[in-house]
Amino acid sequence: MALIKGIGVNVDTRRVNGSMKKLWEELKFFQSVGFDYVEIPPAGLDVIVRGRILEKRLQRFKDILSDFDFRYTIHAPDVINLRHRTNPLHYKVMEATVRLAGMINAEVVVYHCGTVEHSLDLREKTQKDAEVKALKRLAKLAAENNTVIGVENVGHSADEVLEVIKRVNHPNVRMVLDLGHLYIVSTYRGLDFYRQVSRALEYTVELHVSDNFAESPQTYQDVPNIESFQFVYGIGDLHLPLGEGEMPYTKLLKMIRESSFNGIVTLEINSMDRFKDDYADSLNLLRRRLIGRNGGLK
User: Fold this and answer.
1) Taking phi first (over 0 means left), then psi (-120 to 50 degrees means alpha), and beta for anything else, what does residue 264 get?
2) How far is residue 297's CA from residue 228's CA, in Å, rounded to a whole number?
3) Interval 110-150: pLDDT, tens
4) Whole-model pTM?
5) How confident is the model at residue 221 (pLDDT cuts 50, 70, 90)?
6) Where do the DSSP E strands lie in the chain?
């Protein structure tokens, strides 16, 4: 049976946009709903600038966190790509993020698995090797800071991320399994979604959960990548509350509960303007299905 350490929620980079006041307000709201963990985005707080941690901003940040009893994870900036060894700032920013995790006792640092940039004059293998080499170095830093780097699937299959993790081969580099991302990728590429989930759970330190309609933006390239239009068409990683899309959560949560998963479950709803009233329902559903009695969902 799964051991759920707690259920968390994300602070979205664009929502706080550098405002410590907005961060405090979101934490206060999440406290009222009853979450255990909060995932913090350094890119939204201006604590890290050009790979350096700003002490003045850091102290304000830590003062705000001290008002609450949450446990924390950190989501590294989405654009970090450790496969791009030609840009050393990617590594420098990731290194600072891991150090920041140690300063706030964050248990996981979420890193988006890298992508191959075909415009670079570097072979695909060279870029992938660069990511593995960087993660091996960062794994030691993560161990020193009592945190774990979780490599998240974005446009990847679970198998592609597991290949990276197995090559790094370090207990402080695990997987963050994003079910929404995997649902879209599996449907678009014709992969067995449940098989991918099953393979990944053994290596997963954190789950990201939200809902969508499994529609890849690559199928609808005439629809602009603008949130309001994507909602209207139901395209892409919409980060909907559970039950608002078509993900098969009845089966998924049963699989998770019966698996050997041992970690954190994080609800990712990015548009608080649209869904502020829905956080509690999604949290309660996760608690019923993963920790307590059964509840109802399609």
Assistant:
1) beta
2) 26
3) 999 999 887 776 788 988 999 999 999 999 999 999 999 99
4) 0.94
5) confident
6) 3-10, 37-40, 48-49, 52-53, 71-75, 108-112, 148-152, 173-178, 204-209, 262-267
Question: Do residues 190 and 164 touch, judged by C-beta distance below 8 A?
Answer: no
Q: Is the separation of the CB atoms in 212 and 238 below 8 Å?
A: yes
Residue 132: CB atoms within 10 A of its CB come to 19
For residue 226, give Cα distances in angstroms to 156, 215, 216, 240, 244: 22, 15, 14, 15, 19
Sequence spans of domains, the chain = 3-290
Is the pLDDT at 168 greater than 80? The verdict is: yes
Domain 3-290 falls in which CATH fold? TIM Barrel (3.20.20)
Is the CB of residue 196 less than 8 Å from the CB of residue 253?
no
Question: What integer pLDDT is reported at residue 120 of this predicted model?
Answer: 72
Q: Of 18, 11, 264, which is closest to residue 147 (Cα–Cα)?
A: 264
- Distance CA(295)–CA(284), nearest Å, equals 9
Q: List pLDDT tens digits, range 65-86.
A: 999 999 999 999 999 999 998 8
> Strands 48-49, 52-53: parallel, antiparallel or unpaired by DSSP?
antiparallel
Each as own residue / partner, the long-range contacts of residues 53-59 (CB below 8 Å, 24 or more positions apart, any chain) are: 53/96, 53/99, 53/100, 53/103, 58/100, 58/103
The answer to whether the CB of 165 falls within 8 A of the CB of 126 is no
Query: For the chain, what is the mean pLDDT?
Result: 94
Residues pairing with 33 in the sheet: none
Residues 6+ apart with CB under 8 A from 201: 177, 255, 256, 259, 260, 261
